[in-house]
Amino acid sequence: MHSSTIASVALFAASALAYPTPTGSSVADIAGGSTPNGTPPKNISAAAIADFQGVNFLENMESAFFEQGLKNLTAWNYNGELDAAIEVVTRVHAQELIHVQTAENILNHFHKPTFSPCQYQFPVTTAEEFLDLANIITSVGIGAVINVASSLALTDPGLVPGPASILSTEARHDAFFRIAALDLVPNPTPFDTRLSAAYALNLASPFIVPGSCAAMPKFPVIPPLTQVKPQGYQHGTTGTGVPIQFTVDADVSGALFIGWVNQANVVNYTPAKMVAARVVETVIPEGLGGMAFAALTNTQTATDVNALTGLTLAGPAPVQIS
After folding, report:
1. Parallel, antiparallel, or unpaired: how do β-strands 279-283 and 2-4 relate?
2. What does the alpha-carbon distance between residue 224 and residue 283 come to, in Å, rounded to a whole number?
3. Are 294 and 317 in contact (CB under 8 A)?
4. What does the pLDDT read at residue 10?
5. What are the pLDDT digits (tens) for 277-307?
6. What pLDDT score does 207 carry?
7. Is the dihedral of CA 141, 292, 319, 183 positive or negative?
8. How confident is the model at residue 17 (pLDDT cuts 50, 70, 90)?
9. Which of 220, 207, 212, 15 is nearest to 130 (CA)?
10. H-assigned helices in 156-242
């Protein structure tokens, strides 16, 4: 893996702290609330500063995604069939703007640099494609928030309530997108799936126009792993031996495995084999649900997502199980 400076769309909510709200009352009114109004902390760790700088950068992209989505949904709303989606996404967009401002307020309080938005490109041409991508982006964001909360628990325990409290809001977002885009149940699993920062960043990087960012956080680039067969969500295929194939944007050899990251479980491995040039095949193991993430590796030693990240040859690929 090598370093890049492309940002993630990972979702995050800042901690419940007090800062002004220069975003304006109209945004706060739409969002249902403003930036937190508690007392800022006296001290903060370097690791937490890095987290909030990443959050600032990531939420800029998230906000841009929903802003563009609102414009597109309005243009596609020929007979009013998208009125409900527009209402929900309007509120989601405002809430993401509040998250951006909260992260910036924390950084400004400690006189640390903030990030300005980049230019973004999102491959959607219909309302269905937008809502489907919103489901994936939100799932990635939830996983990233879980990881950040876990990190803050070690370095800055007093900051944990903020990201912890946002998870329920993001889950409500995701529930809507699951129903609207895929007609799936809103609550597929008892636990959501944690993602490493590097995984979330790699999943997000294709949406940022190269060279468009004035400044960017660095992250290790991992070659992409893309599900190609079968496409769509994989309900009913777990543990059945039905093959699933991915394209691999890298030359790989030797013993290969897919590490499956899902819910609060240890990494589950299935043997993988090359079936064509840069095409790898495996099966989905039993016991997965909701959104799982598949990573190509040549070992079965890692038990959690952060350990697996450092041993990943390609990926991760989001796989909608149920």
Report:
1. unpaired
2. 19
3. yes
4. 30
5. 999 999 999 999 999 999 999 999 999 999 9
6. 92
7. negative
8. very low
9. 207
10. 161-177, 197-204
